[in-house]
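Subject: Protein record for review, amino acid sequence with backbone structure tokens
How to read it: Take the token row as a discrete description of the fold.
Enclosed: The protein record, placed directly beneath this head.
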Amino acid sequence: MTPELKGVDGRVERGNRTRRLVLRHTVDIASVEGLEALSVGRIATELGLSKSGVFALFGSKEELQLATIRAAGRIYSDEVLAPVAELPAGVGKVARLCEEWLRYSQGRVFPGGCFFYAVMAEFDARQGPVHDAVVESLTVWMAYVEERVAEARAAGELTADTDPAQLAFELVALLEAANAHSLLTGHALPYERARAGVAARLRAAATDAGLVPQLA
């Protein structure tokens, strides 16, 4: 490799490292204070970076917000979706998915609990690219849960009259309520109530209640 190419590669790697550093910081801020709390100047100051350097990576506040949503999505996927990806279809997989979400929220992977719950509340009545990115994230997540429920029904582990969209909505509502109540009160009890609610709802819909595992 020529010295010129080595120099280019070095700058690219430094830029990638800086980008990762910035986005790890912004997802944490946004989960507590919201996406509107992000600015190029603030991030540069707090991380000891040049404002021009951060601006060169993102170009605008809106792009910084969008990049933050994408970064949060990658973390969310690693924490919630990846652990269940190889599990066989069925009610046990649905239950495990709910448990991974509760663990992710209760463990404060993001200091403000679920990143997406926080930014949904911030952008639910707004319009524009950031709102649309938040909506897309919610849509993908709800569709994922609904698909896992539909697979469990197809496997014969949920009753034939189970409505996957309705059951997915109810399960996610329990998860989000636990997240919100725990953040507000500082207590862990909402997570236990959500676990009990998820298990009860799945047992009611299961062809065999014994298929529903105990949520930890």
Notes: The CA atoms of residues 2 and 8 lie 10 Å apart. The mean pLDDT is 93. The two ends are 53 Å apart (CA to CA). The longest helix spans residues 3-33.
